[in-house]
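Q: Give me the 3D complex with flavin mononucleotide.
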Amino acid sequence: MKALALNGSARKDWNTAKMLESALAGAKDAGAETKLVNLFDLDYKGCRGCSACKLLGGKFYGACAQQDGLTAILEEAKNADVLFLGSPIYFSDVTGMMRNFIERFLFPTLTYSKDMHRLYTKRVKVGLVYTFNAPDGFYNDYFAGQQAIFNAMIGDTEYVYAAETLQFTDYSKYDADMFDPEQRKTRHETVFPEDCRKAYEMGKRLAEK
Ligand SMILES: Cc1cc2nc3c(=O)[nH]c(=O)nc-3n(C[C@H](O)[C@H](O)[C@H](O)COP(=O)(O)O)c2cc1C
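A: Here is the predicted complex, encoded as structure tokens.
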């Protein structure tokens, strides 16, 4: 049983990383072998729309033809039993690095066939992990949309999130007076551990399924 987590934040010790570590801890307690990869350590680009992954009889049918820093990770993600995808919300979406990963992970399994068959043979359980500044529930429609896409294309999918995260250690140093630093700090100390516990439970649940 293998659980792979991909972090779409450049900040390796911050909110998204902590949530992903919790999800992996849950999967580990359910017996999984775990691994975390920081997407910012890899050199890769997004989907080029070459459609080699759909070329009948082609060498790359069902796989991404681009050979770069993401190639090995795409293989690992396809072959994992549980996949955790973690990202901060940047301008109401995942980060560019996570977006590029998602394009190259999802497009090769998709066909434009009438029966809508998929090309990945294995179903992978997916845990989506998000962190952001906005209040609880703000992005739930977006998360539900992503969950539906991963459910249809990859495997059983759940999501967890941490809202109103601590973005700066010292808010007074930044042009950011719309936030109440004390509220953020208190929330980080009281609610964020609970968010991490939810990530842990999700990780355990998906690995046990
Ligand atoms: C470039 C950028 C864009 C952001 N856009 C949003 C946004 O649209 N909505 C939001 O709620 N938070 C936004 N945030 C805040 C982050 O999502 C939040 O601080 C997140 O927890 C950071 O994750 P990290 O600590 O793992 O890096 C943005 C932060 C940055 C740096």
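A quick observation: Residues 2-208 form a domain with the Rossmann fold fold (CATH 3.40.50.360).
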